[in-house]
Amino acid sequence: MAQCVQSVQEFLQDAFVPLVAALCSDEAERLTRRNGLSFAELVKPFCRLTSEVHMRDPNNQLHIIKNLKIAVNNIITHPPQPGAIRKLLNDVVSVSQPAEGLVANVITAGDYDLNISDRSIKASVPWYSNWKETLMELNTSTFYTATTPWFESYRESFLQSMPASDHEFLNHYVACMLVVSSSEPEPVEQFLKLSQEQHRIQHSSDYLYPKWFIPNTLKYYVLLHDVSAGEEQRADSIYEEMKQRYGTQGCYLLKINSRVSNRGVDEQIPDPWSQYLQKNSIQNQESYEDGPYTVISNKSADHLISDGLDIDIRVDGLSNNFKAHPLQLDHPSDTSGTLDGTDFIKTTPSLHESKKSSSGTPHGACLTLTDHDRIRQFIQEFTFRGLLPHIEKTIRQLNDQLISRKGLSRSLFSATKKWFGGGKVPEKSINELKNTSGLLYPPEAPELQIRKMADLCFLVQHYELAYSCYHTAKKDFLNDQAMFYAAGALEMAAVSAFLQPGAPRPYPAHYMDTAIQTYRDICKNMVLAERCVLLSAEILKSQSKYSEAAALLIRLTSEDSDLRSALLLEQAAHCFINMKSPMVRKFAFHMILAGHRFSKAGQKKHALRCYCQAMQVYKGKGWSLAEDHINFTIGRQSFTLRQLDNAVSAFRHILINDSKQPAAQQGAFLREYLYVYKNVTQLSPDGPLPQLPLPYINSSATRVFFGHNRRPAEGEKQAATHISLDQEYDSESSQQWKELEEQVVAVANKGIIPSNFQPTQYCLNSYSDNSRFPLAVVEEPITVEVAFRNPLKVPLLLTDLSLLWKFQPKDFNVKHNEETKELGVCGSDVIGAEVIAEFLINSEETKMARLKLFPHQTGELHILGVVYNLGTIQGSTALDGLDPSIGMQTGKLVSNGLSVRGRQDLEIQGPRLNNTKEEKTSIKYGPDRRLDPIITEEMPLLEVFFINFPTGLLCGEIRKAYVEFVNVSKCPLTALKVVSKHPEFFTFGGNTAILTPLSPSASENCSAYKTVVTDSTSLHTALLSSASSGDFGVGTGSQPEVIHVPLLDSVLLPGASVQLPMWLRGPDEEGVHEINFLFYYESIRKHSKMCHRVLRHTAVICTSRSLNVRATVSRSNALEDEEGRGDNMLVFVDVENINTSETGVKEFHVVQVSSNSKHWKLQKSVKVSEDKDTKLASRERAKLCFKAVRCKSFDETYTFADIVFGNEQIISSASPCADFFFRSLSSQLKRAHVQSNTHASQAAAKQSFEAVRLIQKCSEVDLNIVVLWKAYVVEDSKQLILEGQHHVALHTIGKEAFSFPQKLEQPEMVLLKFFRPENTPAPTRPTPEQLSNLIKTSLRYPESFNHSFHQKSLCLVPVTLLLSNCSQADVDVIIDLRHKTTSPEALEVHGSFTWLGQTQYKLQLKSQEVYSLQLKACFVHTGVYNLGTPRVFAKLADQVTLFETSQQNSMPALIIINNI
After folding, report:
1. DSSP notation for 518-577
2. Rg of the chain over CA atoms, in angstroms?
3. Burial class (CB in 10 A: 0-12, 13-18, 19+), 1268
4. Whole-angstrom Cα distance, residue 73 to residue 80?
5. Does the structure show a pLDDT above 90 at 728?
6. Inter-residue contact 1078 to 1092 (CB < 8 Å)
7. What is the rounded average pLDDT of the residues 1302-1316?
8. Closest listed residue to residue 1077, CA positions, set 731, 717, 737
9. Half-sphere exposure of 425 (CA within 13 A, CB side)
10. How large is the average pLDDT for residues 1237-1243?
């Protein structure tokens, strides 16, 4: 049970106090009414004695009475009516509510903290010492238990309002005060009249009510004197006369009304009456309109034993109408029902409300503090001199009477076991019912005399004597089977045993259990049973027997009284929470039951409080259905009590938790919520928009897109893909775009990225970097994608959905700021907002809403959230057919259901910071500013369209497309560039490409190349042209990935569009290629916030295999060509058709082979095939051989040589052929440029390395071969001609080069070795292969020589030895002719010969010099001879002896000597 303000002893003593009747004359009543009080009300605050009282028991032992309280009541001759009692109790509970605004008390039980807000007192928990071990780390906490003042008020009123019963005397009047005013003409006569009236009321059979303790009732005569009226001497004389007549101990002069009414109003006199008058006395029958209640009595009838609740109706003087079940009275005259009926009394103004209306008049207005003391003294005198001596005398009389009647010993205390045993059976009424509960005793029966004595002893706190008497009476009643009387004796015996000082015996709880069972089951008297339960539960609670107390309280809950059941269930709940091991869930469950019964009893506030306390236990424990039920009830009760905010909050909880309710129930919850919400908003229509709980918004999934949606493709026109909300975020591609933008910004800013550079982000999401304020452009829309989720199984309809924003206008060119404009109140002149009329979210669906804002001014925008009307759609069930139990009007539903307007905020948590030590050790989050864009001034806006852009190409295929650039803004744009990681994929052509007219045949064949018709004489011979890489935007120093778009005057005016040709070349590797283009442009006006803009495009190209080109280069043995120049090379080109027939390619024609180099050029085709074209069907291979010669080099100028196999020459030095060549070359040029720089730095340190480098250079060539081809494709019975080109870069003599990158084979797994890396020095010696290329030698001689040996025996043949210096440095050469060959191949040649003349020559050859040395060979007879015997040694001129080695010819030089 809850903590009580009173101790259990105080409560039990105050439950049963001596009753004193008050009978006043009219004049005396008038005197007291001057204070707004009746006489009984006047003395009520002073009825508790402040000092101890002494009296003697029958054994003449002194007995001390402490803290005695008496009750003075006006005489009411009608019994209390059940309806009035019900209303009183109902009002008492209604008036007593938890105090609002006080600090909530906390009961901590296990993991629960229960907030119970009321006027509770701080109390130590009795079970704390045993319970602390079960709590986690709470042993130092202070606990508070809750009081329930409404229960105590109910209990007090219930006990006071109990009607007097004949089976006990506790509620019978012991004495009567006769009160007369001193101002009456004949006060003594008035006393006599009042005395006769009292005698008539007590002894006349016309009055069955009230009940009197003994026939000889104590009469106490009180003379009331009004001090303000004077005449004090007359009052004194009357009082003297009274003392003569009634004795000094039987009368009293009470002086009141000393205060003059016109005294200062500011004098504060305490008002002790207010606390008592709130609990209106049950005897005040005038305020109840329960209908007539007649009692027809019969003088000769015996006393009727009532059940204490309902006076039985006696008709025709017969008493056999006594009902065994008092709850089933159905006599037509009983219009009031029963006390145990339903407690839900729908009253007109309740009791406390009527009191409030009269509370304006203060109580005791004519009384001073002296008068208060006089009244207190009067009560003490009455008790000391009148009441207690009378009770003491009565106890002695009863004691003597009983002893003389039963013939026992003189003292009751010496009686041991058989009290009054064997006495005669009591007289029973002739109308006795067979049921033993109907047994009646006459008033003078000795059993009742014992009971009377016991009650008197109990009232004066003589509990030991009382227990003995109750115990004796209990036995007699049980012997007589008078169960009703026995139950009363058992009840009081148990209480007496508990109250005995020193606790000589334990509390006999079984007595109380038997009494409760008897009252409830046999006597059918629930009121007396309830009194037993209230008393026993309080006793058990004081002994910490909370479990037994809870069981007792629950046992008395029943359907006949909701109010009683509710109060007892609530107390049982408090018992569970106060146990040693708190049973928190039982507490919550019984609070729910109590709340339900409170609701049925009409106690809405108490019902709401119970449910709220239970909710503290259930919330967050996963018991969702229980939570839903509690929240729903809280919402209902709060709505009924017009606590609309609480109702909204409760219904909100039902909707936002993951509900396991069926769809129909969720729909009902939602409709109730909307209805309640609508009521709230109607109360304050101009207030701020409240937060709505549905649908859920995943704030972190919010995406923000800046700019217009791109126009889709139209026919052959394909818009740039750019970026949109439909694309998934890819961190890898995002990083690529960022790198591309950094590249192009660096080029635009002369190689330096500005410090304030911020990568352009058009779409912001949870993965993007949102630490900076994003930039938006005025007049361009901002799209916010909000992720809504409907957790319910019913669809939600959002109407008039739009964004909520705050805007601060700022001119970024001026320093001052303007005022902030909020929430769109300024209209669409600042920010235009798109409104979605209807947005339907189906059950359990996640759906994105895209909302737009159109900024019309520069400044700072803050997107706060969304605003919308929340509603439901009309389903199959009629919405007005709601369950009638729903206590709400549902007639206001619109056609598509109720809807309410509200908002939800978008609050995005930034990323967790994890950089510094402090951030790592604490939880800190960075900002997320995606919803706070800065609106900048106007910028140009570019749209790009691709015309005839292919999706599939052959590897190396060249295709011509067009790009259209459109400026859709009102600002001109400039500095248009495009950057891509694959610059070799596309070109806009060189500087002259736009102006180059197409030849007629090229137009006819739709060729992408510039061609000229060739004559037959130039077939297989090189046609020369030259070009510089600068003409095509490629240089070794620039960024090859950044390409300037050739616009006219470099400006695109507002609204203007321009179409440019774009040539594409299929990548060399087959497969699907994603190629990213980033278009960069600027405004002509420089802005402080936004310097540039970019546009993205991703082209997806699928390439299929075409040709595989391999090439090698080797030195020609012929040192001079026809023009006499040396340094020739042979180029072997191997072309293979690796295309599969799936693509529909019929055959490839190699139409031209071109070379481009700074130092070499193709001269002619060595092998002349019969066909003009080289045709290749699937899997065929062709081998081509070309002669290459060195050409004069000009700085940065490439020589192009075209060897044509067809009728048309493709000018390889023009666009697009040269463009793609230079683009494919650019990456290699970049690498070579880096290498040359590093080598130059190393050369200064190591001279020897330079020598090696010179020798290595001899074997390097810089020759690029371009193979141009046509492919004939049959597609849809039409023949198409595709064209393309492949590039092969030849770097080293003898090393094979490929047109496509080779895949490295995976090396075999080897054991892992650990070693210390060393700085490997540059190689100090070149390889023999490299040295053999330093000097190239060649012998010139006739293949056969005829000589007549008969005429001349010696044959002399002139031989020329050609020496060619292949290096860039001077070379010293030594030729030694004494060498004799020893190789097996040479020995096979018959005979030997001799060189005539010098046997050794020393020469120095300049760079690239060809030297001719004339020799003579001498033969003595015919044969075949090998002339390749000279040994050649070479070394660099500035070296001493390094690298001298023999130069060997790879082929024998054979000569045939014939004899003629």
Report:
1. IIIIIS--HHHHHHHHHHHHHHHHHTT-HHHHHHHHHHT--TT-HHHHHHHHHHHHHHHH
2. 60
3. buried
4. 13
5. no
6. no
7. 65
8. 737
9. 7
10. 47
pLDDT at 1 (0 to 100) = 55
- In this prediction, residue 933 has a pLDDT band, given cuts at 50, 70 and 90, of very high
With tokens 């529909």, the residue in question is: 1144
**pLDDT per residue as tens digits for the range 24-72:** 999 889 888 888 888 888 889 899 888 888 888 888 888 888 889 999 9
Nearest partner of 1447 among 1375, 1384, 1394, 1389, judged by Cα:
1375
Residue among 1210, 1448, 1459, 1215 nearest 1334 (CA):
1448
In the structure encoding, which two tokens stand for residue 784, read together?
A: 């916010």
Contact 812, 1088 (CB under 8 A): yes
Comparing C-alpha atoms, which of 993, 1273, 978, 1270 is closest to residue 1099? Answer: 978
| Tokens linked to 1090 | 């936004």
> Among residues of the chain, what percentage have pLDDT more than 90?
22
Asked if pLDDT for residue 590 goes beyond 90, the answer is: yes
Work out the pLDDT band at 1231, boundaries 50, 70, 90: low
Q: Are 832 and 932 spatial neighbours (Cβ–Cβ below 8 Å)?
A: no
Which segment of 495-499, 553-557, 1018-1022 scores lowest on mean pLDDT?
Answer: 1018-1022
Do 1148 and 1283 contact (CB within 8 A), yes or no? no
Lowest-confidence range among 422-426, 639-643, 1412-1416, 1445-1449? 422-426
Going by pLDDT thresholds of 50, 70 and 90, the confidence category of residue 1325 is low
How far, in Å, CA of 1040 to CA of 1035, rounded? 7
Mapped to the 3 state alphabet, what secondary structure does 855-867 carry? ECCCEEEEEEEEE
Check: CB of residue 876 under 8 Å from CB of residue 858.
no
In this prediction, residues 1437-1442 reach a mean pLDDT of: 65
User: Global pTM?
Assistant: 0.67
| Strand, coil or helix: 714 | strand
For the purposes of burial, counting CB atoms within 10 Å of the CB of 541, is it exposed (0-12), middle (13-18) or buried (19 or more)? buried
What is the C-alpha to C-alpha distance for residues 978 and 1044, in angstroms, rounded to an integer? 6
Beta strands in 145-226 (DSSP E): 173-181, 218-226
pLDDT score of 691 more than 60 = yes
- pLDDT band with cut points at 50, 70 and 90 for residue 414: very low
Look at the block and give the residue holding tokens 């997320």: 928
Cβ count within 10 A of residue 916: 10
User: What's the whole-number mean pLDDT along residues 199-215?
Assistant: 86
Distance CA 1417, CA 1139 (A): 56
Strand partners, 799: 838, 869
Return d(Cα 767, Cα 702) in angstroms, integer. Answer: 11
- Alpha helical stretches, state H, 382-462: 388-406, 446-459
Please say whether the beta carbons of 963 and 1064 come within 8 A: no
Q: Is pLDDT at 353 greater than 60 in this prediction? A: no
| CB neighbour list of residue 363: distance below 8 Å, 6 or more residues apart | 35, 36, 37, 271, 273, 274, 277
Answer yes or no: are the C-beta atoms of 718 and 1095 closer than 8 Å: no
Which bin fits 470, alpha (ψ -120 to 50), beta or left (φ > 0)?
A: alpha
Which own/partner contact pairs does 687-693 have at CB distance under 8 Å and 24+ positions apart? 689/867, 689/901, 689/902, 689/903, 690/648, 690/902, 690/903, 691/902, 691/903, 691/904, 691/905, 692/868, 692/870, 692/900, 692/902, 692/903, 692/904, 693/652, 693/655, 693/656
What is residue 161's predicted lDDT score, i.e. its pLDDT? 86
Give the 3-state secondary structure of residue 1414: strand
Q: Which residues contact 1165 (CB under 8 A, 6 or more apart)?
A: 1020, 1021, 1153, 1184, 1185, 1186, 1187, 1203
* Averaged pLDDT of the chain: 77
CA distance 773 to 1089: 11
> Of 1140, 1206, 1199, which Cα lies nearest the Cα of 1173?
1206
